[in-house]
Amino acid sequence: MIVYLLESESDPSRKYVGITSDLAKRLEEHNRGKSIHTNKHRPWRVVVSIWFADPNKAADFELYLKKGSGHAFARRRFW
Questions:
Q1: pLDDT for the residue 79
Q2: Any bridge partners for residue 6, and if so which?
Q3: How many of the other CB atoms lie within 10 Å of CB of 18?
Q4: Are 78 and 47 in contact (CB under 8 A)?
């Protein structure tokens, strides 16, 4: 599984964190407006992608990045 961080090219203040098994396909879906969370700020670009062999660890890391200290960590280290 892949945890990925996106940044809007039209509004770089807009960020998104997600998880997928196929990053190219998922990015295409974001850029085609298939996600209600990202369709207003297209196009998107991948800032970071992290591959995990264990899907549970990937899901845990995604949740971490979306909350409190993990959100701050992503802001300091990735954006």
A1: 79
A2: 16, 46
A3: 19
A4: yes
One pLDDT digit (tens) per residue for the chain, 79 residues: 999 999 999 999 999 999 999 999 999 999 999 999 999 999 999 999 999 999 999 999 999 999 999 989 999 999 7
> How does DSSP assign the chain, residue by residue?
-EEEEEEESS-TT-EEEEEES-HHHHHHHHHTT--TTTGGG--EEEEEEEE-SSHHHHHHHHHHHTSHHHHHHHHHHT-
The CATH number corresponding to 2-77 among 3.30.300, 3.40.1440, 3.30.70, 3.30.310 equals 3.40.1440
* Domain definitions of the chain by residue range: 2-77
- Name the token pair of 51: 């591959």
Contact status, residue 17 vs residue 3, Cβ threshold 8 Å: yes
